[in-house]
Prior knowledge:
Layout: E1 13-17, H1 20-31, E2 36-38, E3 41-44, E4 54-58, E5 71-74, H2 80-90, E6 93-102, E7 105-111, E8 117-122
Parallel strand pairs: 1-4, 5-8
Antiparallel strand pairs: 2-3, 3-4, 6-7, 7-8
Amino acid sequence: MDMTTQHITLGAINMEAENPVELAAFWGTVTSAVPSVGGGTVYLPPAGPGGFAMFFRPMAGPRLERQAAHLDLTVPWGSRQAEVDRLLSLGATYKWDVLDEVPHVQWTTLADPEGNLFCVAEHPPAS
């Protein structure tokens, strides 16, 4: 068995949506990517190097009461509030801030238009 270390990358984040086209449009605006609709699904390509892709498909069943995973988006130090304000203007909903819990990160938790939680985090510069 070859034990060579391989570089793993994120291919895409897959999400079920009540309205895949509308949810992909929201995330396309968030990430500056252009959605590609195919049948009942939508692919959102990475918006450049270091970006991530997303894939939206119709809901297969009822939405779970508890969200087991969420996206943590990172912005440069000092720009979190401006980015949160931008995302709110696009249709995100404010949930809460965590500003003093840990010294190496501050974040705001938001929900996308279908209620999926995500965070916008900033890390202070290294001393």
